[in-house]
């Protein structure tokens, strides 16, 4: 989807995110507003792409953008060695998967199956951009998101698996194309 197409469906995308994020009405509205700000900012990045899955209604989506050696996205790495990531792939083959929004049952059931919706979306997003490696970050203390991403094939960019990380930090995960 182009930036204009994302803008046309922004409310629908935000509603699905909020529906799947859980919580009460206040948390729903707060999470939805923060998500929409984040999505709108990502949609303006060069090479932005959003894939949707739908039947008669929107059922899930994944989005991201290619990243090089510089740019504001790297600011959240909190000491992670971006050079090490960049040396793992040829220039232009590193793609940030900024978000994967799927129903909670998709996050819980059959996560390791190739046909899992989240796995298909992330695989297609990387393939469509010729990316050799996907990269994402997750809050260090968000164990649920970390474990879900690992079940979808993501691996820690560092050599550790889940060692102590300072509060407010993030974990960087990578996904090989085709995983």
SSE blueprint and pairings:
Blueprint lengths: L2 H6 L1 H12 L3 H19 L5 E6 L3 E9 L15 H5 L7 E9 L1 H5 L8 H12 L4 E7 L3 H9 L3 E2 L13 E7 L3
Parallel strand pairs: 3-4
Antiparallel strand pairs: 1-2, 2-3, 4-6, 5-6
Helix pairs in contact: 2-3
Structural commentary:
The protein is an alpha+beta fold and 179 residues long. The protein is 38% helix and 22% strand. It is built from seven helices and six strands; from the N terminus they run αααββαβααβαββ. The chain has helices at residues 3-8, 10-21, 25-43, 82-86, 104-108, 117-128, 143-151, and strands at residues 49-54, 58-66, 94-102, 133-139, 155-156, 170-176. It has a six-stranded mixed β-sheet. Strand 1 and strand 2 form a beta hairpin. The longest helix is centred in the N-terminal third of the chain and has 19 residues, at 25-43. The radius of gyration is 16 Å and the shape is globular. The model has no long low-confidence stretch (mean pLDDT 82).
The percent of residues in helical segments reads: 25-40%
What characteristic shape results from the CA principal axes?
globular
The SSE order reads: HHHEEHEHHEHEE
Proportion of residues in extended strands: 15-25%
Measured between the Cα atoms of the first and last residue, the distance is 23 Å
Spans of at least 5 consecutive residues with low confidence: none
Number of helices: 7
Radius of gyration (Å): 16 Å
Class derived from helix and strand content: alpha+beta
- How is the largest sheet built, in terms of strand order? 1-2-3-4-6-5
Average pLDDT for all residues: 82
Give the total of beta strands. Answer: 6
Q: What's the story with the biggest beta sheet? A: 6 strands, mixed
């Amino acid at each position: 989807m182009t930036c204009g197409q994302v803008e046309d469906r922004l409310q629908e995308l935000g509603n699905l995110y909020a529906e799947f994020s859980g919580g009460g009405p206040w948390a729903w509205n707060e999470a939805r507003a923060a998500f929409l700000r984040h999505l709108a900012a990502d949609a303006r990045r060069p090479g932005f792409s959003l894939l949707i899955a739908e039947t008669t209604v929107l059922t899930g989506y994944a989005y991201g953008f290619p990243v090089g050696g510089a740019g504001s996205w790297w600011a959240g790495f909190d000491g992670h060695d971006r050079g090490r990531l960049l040396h793992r792939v040829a220039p232009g083959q590193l793609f940030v998967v900024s978000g994967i929004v799927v129903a909670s049952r998709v996050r819980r059931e059959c996560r390791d199956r190739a046909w899992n919706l989240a796995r298909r979306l992330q695989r297609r997003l990387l393939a469509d951009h010729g990316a050799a490696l996907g990269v994402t970050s997750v809050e260090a203390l968000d164990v649920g998101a970390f474990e879900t991403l690992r079940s979808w094939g993501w691996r820690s960019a560092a050599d550790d698996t889940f060692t102590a990380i300072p509060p407010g930090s993030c974990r960087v995960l990578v996904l090989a194309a085709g995983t």
